[in-house]
TrEMBL record:
S-adenosyl-L-methionine binds at residues 278, 305, 323. The keyword Transferase applies. Residues 164-425 form the SAM-dependent MTase RsmB/NOP-type domain. InterPro entries: MeTrfase_RsmB-F_NOP2_cat (IPR049560), MeTrfase_RsmB-F_NOP2_dom (IPR001678), RCMT (IPR023267), RsmB-like_ferredoxin (IPR054728), SAM-dependent_MTases_sf (IPR029063). PANTHER family: NOP2 YEAST -RELATED NOL1/NOP2/FMU SUN DOMAIN-CONTAINING, RIBOSOMAL RNA SMALL SUBUNIT METHYLTRANSFERASE B-RELATED. The active site is at residue 376. One of its GO terms (biological process) is RNA methylation. One of its GO terms (molecular function) is RNA binding. This is 16S rRNA (Cytosine967-C5)-methyltransferase. Keywords: Methyltransferase, RNA-binding, S-adenosyl-L-methionine, Transferase. Belongs to the class I-like SAM-binding methyltransferase superfamily. RsmB/NOP family. Coiled coil: none annotated.
Amino acid sequence: MYCNTFAASNTYLYNKVLFNLKSMKLHRNLVFATIDSLNLIFNDNKQADKVLRDTLKRDKRWGARDRSFIAETTYDIVRWKRLYAEIADVNEHFDRPNLFRMFAVWATLNGITIPDWPQFEATPTRRIKGRFDEYSKIRKLRESIPDWLDELGEKELGKKWDTELAALNKQASVVLRVNPLKATVQQVKEHLEEAEIKTETVKGHPHALRLIERANVFSTEAFKNGWFEVQDASSQKVAQILDPRPGMRVVDACAGAGGKTLHIASLMENKGQVISMDIYGNKLIELKRRARRNGIHNIETRVIDSTKVIKKLLGKADKVLIDAPCSGLGVLKRNPDAKWKLRPEFLETIKETQAEIIDSYSRMVKPGGQLVYATCSILPSENEKQVKTFLKREAGEEFTLTKDEKILPSKSGFDGFYIALLQKKE
Ligand SMILES: C[S@@+](CC[C@H](N)C(=O)[O-])C[C@H]1O[C@@H](n2cnc3c(N)ncnc32)[C@H](O)[C@@H]1O
């Protein structure tokens, strides 16, 4: 699924803009590592995050700046693939000479002097700048997005699409969620400051700390001891709106690797029961590993391998969270290769899955209980329209919409999310 924000966040942390690009000298092994990564992402359809994780392991001598260069440049070229390909006048399949041409576009637009390596022979620097100005007048090229997705975004969001698309092409902030079972926000802030990592609190998000500059927080003692998780501020809103209380029985029906489960369990102070489900057992194994680090003991995991798993819990949960599989369009900032991997057919299928999931899993809510339906998409067809049609179907007739929040990246500065809170009749 495209909306696994946890997976997308790991190598993103290396994207620390430490270097002054203009005065930068290109190092052959770093450029080659970038080209190799792009080759795997573009031509072998590999996930950018996983490719970078492997590439960065390649040379132990690489320091933080080298790793930042590879990760940042790769993500940048992935983000601007269409624009750079048009400027470089190359088509898919991107062979190595084509990838070097796209790299030359990236370097030229960032004011970096192109070295006299054979791969960069006859790079038309002036033509690159001229083409950039010309193509910047056309939205789908300027914002580097496939035609079908640009048309869909405009159809669904109208004029708002312009602003949201531009916001989704900005670099994502790194936000931490402090685990109140282990530490306070102030303790984490001070601990990170000792490691020269500066953070700031985020208004409206009581457990959030935003990194002022990117850093690899996973290597800190605080992370290893479960004091915090990396979780975008918009994603932190989901458990806030679900509002689980100690002693309740809460079902996280699409739990994945447990970003929201961990938040829910911490708000429940380890009291009561969280049942975390997913159709993929491996994700739930990762969830359990994270729960141990977080000092959480009230989570039970269940793989959804038959309808029985849901039936056993019919009408038994105080609260159910459906963090539905979705297009992931709200998290393009941290997962830019989703632009190129997403297909119209996938979107149609996932919308059907969302409707089936909400019909089926909502039955686990007990009378008087609550349901939260959330996605990391900004498309109304995956969000408010899904809720509206659910409420009209038989499965939704006992529910009413209490409130919903459409978190737009342009307004929040964080990921795009949709969160609806529904109440079941007594
Ligand atoms: C948005 S992701 C969940 C992210 C997770 N809640 C978190 O906070 O880290 C959606 C999840 O739904 C799972 N999924 C897909 N189809 C499902 C289904 N029919 N029933 C339950 N889970 C499903 C995917 O495996 C994926 O982990």
